[in-house]
Structures are given as C-alpha cells and as structure tokens.
Amino acid sequence: MSTQQPTVRTSSRKGLNNSVLGTRNLMTVAALAVVGAIIVVPLTYIGAAWSTTPNGVLAACALMGVWVVPYALPPVVIRRPGAAVIAGFIMGIITAFSHPMGPAAIAGNVIGALYIEIPLALMLYRKWTWWSFGIAGTVFGFLNGLAYAVAIVQGASTTMQIAFVAIAVVSAWIGVAVTVLIGRLLNQAGVAIAWDGQ
C-alpha cells in the first residue's frame, strides 16, 4: 500500500492573480489606459496652446482635475500596487504616436502616474480611501502647478504663480472626487473592487 501523496500542480502565475499583473486586473488597467489616452491627447494640445501666456497657464491649471482622472482611475478601480504606473506606461505608448514630443510622451505619462502612485506607496498601499486618493491628487496638482509656475516665470507675478499652484490643487481635488465617483459607479456595474465607503 503506497503512502505517497498525490502531487497537486498549480499555475506558476497563481501568485500574480491577486496582483495588478493578474489577467483580469491587467486587462482592466489596459482598458482604463486606452480611455485615459483619449483624455490625455487633447489635453496635451490644449496645454501646449494655452501655456504661452500667464492667463492661458491659469486656465490650463484649472483643467488639472481632468488630468488627474486618467492616472487616478486605475488605482481607484483596481486597488493594487503599480496600477497607476502600468496605466501611465500604456498611455505613454499610445500617445507617443500623436504627441508633439513623440516617444518622450512615455516618460511624461509615467511621471504623471508616479505623482499618484508614490503617495499611495508611502502609505504602504494600505489605504485605498477617498482621502488617500485626495493626498495623491494634492501631490499631482501641486507638482504640476509648480511646473507651470516655474515654466512661465517671465510675465507672471509671484501672486499669479501662487495662484497657478492653488488652482491646480483645487482642480485636482475635484478630479479626485469625480474619479472616486466613477470608481463607485464601476463597482456597481461589477467592474471595480468593492468600495468600502471609507
């Protein structure tokens, strides 16, 4: 009588199923990145056209909340480490074909995604709440608003430069609120991970 236990074979990808690299999660991130690219491409041209004057930059900063959505939506929906960066990389590849700077769009999109990803990483990916995304949105708005303020030093007063940053941050908060709402709607549709309401 044999006492040998039967061998149970498991997939080598089993450990990935619960990560952002799991098939379902990765496909969801890729789909959100495609939608994000549709948002990012026109925003790139609008930003380039408006960033020639202080008033134009002010208007571009007011659109910062729209920029937040493509980068924040993947982690809101998937809630897995790396969701924003992977989406940013995919968006970069897609937009590289239509971006004025070509392949540099990949780096630009990954940097935008890192502005959302790094604050979540600093919280050790343990907080997937509206306020943790609010912190990420604040970082996104502040750093991008600061970039606008520094890029157009000539012709803009210090007060206006502060206004660039403040408007960008407030707009980013609105963008986060919209993103969280979209995440809840997707959850109701069975796409997103269950939202706990925190």
Q: Briefly, what is this?
A:
The protein has 198 residues and is mainly α.
Write the layout of secondary structure elements.
Elements: H1 23-50, H2 54-62, H3 64-78, H4 83-95, H5 104-122, H6 130-151, H7 158-188
Helix pairs in contact: 1-2, 1-3, 1-4, 2-7, 3-4, 3-5, 3-6, 3-7, 4-5, 5-6, 6-7
- The dominant shape is globular
Q: C-alpha Rg, in Å?
A: 20 Å
Q: Could you tell me the number of beta strands?
A: 0
Largest sheet composition: none
What's the SSE pattern?
HHHHHHH
Unreliable stretches (pLDDT < 50, length at least 5) are: none
C-alpha termini separation? 57 Å
Give the helix proportion (percent range).
Answer: 55-70%
Strand content: under 5%
The helix/strand class is mainly alpha
Mean pLDDT metric: 86
Query: What's the helix count?
Result: 7
Describe the 3D structure:
The chain has 198 residues and is an all-alpha fold. Helices cover 69% and strands 0% of the residues. It has 7 helices and no strands. It has helices at residues 23-50, 54-62, 64-78, 83-95, 104-122, 130-151, 158-188. It is globular, with a radius of gyration of 20 Å. The model has no long low-confidence stretch (mean pLDDT 86).
Question: Which key features would you list for this structure?
Answer:
198 residues; mainly alpha; 7 helices; 0% strand
